[in-house]
Specification:
The chain has about 90 residues and is α+β, with helices and mostly antiparallel strands. It has helices at about 20-35, 60-70, and strands at about 5-10, 40-45, 50-55, 75-80. A four-stranded antiparallel sheet has the order 2-3-1-4, covered by helices on one side.
Length: about 90
């Protein structure tokens, strides 16, 4: 199944408290339960003003639906075409 990277512009994301992040995570998980097992949240990276999320989903529309239902921004949704790391150079 395809993997996607979602860029969410959230001013001050890096200053969100643990409780704020917990609430966001709980909302995301409750929406995922409604969508069913085909849409999976892998993990997210929180930076100063953005959150980058990695999802597995059947299509881009499913990822957008999660954002819409959860009230989360999805400023860009990009399908991962390949993954590289230091071992790729070997």
């Amino acid at each position: 199944m395809p993997k996607y990277v979602i860029e969410r512009e959230i001013e001050g994301a890096g200053k969100l408290s643990s409780d704020d992040l917990k609430g966001i995570s709980q909302k995301s998980c409750s929406v995922l339960e409604e969508l069913g097992p085909k849409v999976q949240w892998v993990h997210s990276y929180v930076t100063d003003n953005k959150i980058y999320c990695v999802y597995i989903a059947p299509d881009k529309a499913s990822v957008q639906k999660h954002a819409d239902m959860g009230g989360f921004p999805a400023n860009s949704i990009s399908e991962v075409r390949n993954i590289i790391d230091p071992t790729t150079s070997e």
